[in-house]
Amino acid sequence: MSISRKGRFGALLVMSFALLVAAAPVNAATTKFGAKLAAGIDPSNSPVTCDHEIDGGNGTYACTWIMLNAFNGGTLTAPKTGQINKVKLIAWTDGSFKLVFAKKSGTKFKVVTVGPKVTYHDGCPGDCTVQTYNITPTTVHQGEVVGFQNFKGGAVRCDSGSSNIALFYPTLPAGGAYTTPTDYSGCKMLIQVVYAS
Known about the structure:
Elements: H1 5-23, E1 32-34, E2 48-49, H2 50-55, E3 63-67, E4 82-89, E5 95-105, E6 108-120, E7 131-140, E8 145-150, E9 152-153, E10 156-157, E11 165-168, E12 183-185, E13 188-189, E14 191-195
Antiparallel strand pairs: 1-14, 2-9, 3-8, 3-11, 4-7, 4-14, 5-6, 5-8, 10-13, 11-12
């Protein structure tokens, strides 16, 4: 049986449409960096304060906390330059911090951006949950690392003695000079930042 010209044209249209649909990206992966988070991760032995980590004090001053190791096989540095519009975290307690992005040179760091304030709640009344917060879009540059500024680290897990967070007192201003850490913390940040799609 022969197929008419009209029938062949219709078949070609259907095949072309199918190829276009197949070529379209399906649920492109979200770009993010920082800790690799999942429900049930325990922010053990937190919160901790700046001065407790630096000199054993009682939580009277703020500092800058900068991630040195990304928890649970996460991605430490920003994979590209772009806009961050979400912060994910796990925390035992209510609290807040100012998001920062920093550059590293040798063993020194400088803060490039002090971003918006993130206010979070206790996500561990039962099985600890990953909390997600929308923030004002904030620029991050490829190769930068994430950190925060406040006096208390609530979104951290403290079960190791190695150097996982660099601490700076007083807090580092945006655009300041490269600075040697005041001290280090063995805690691990339970914070991840997500690019706008």
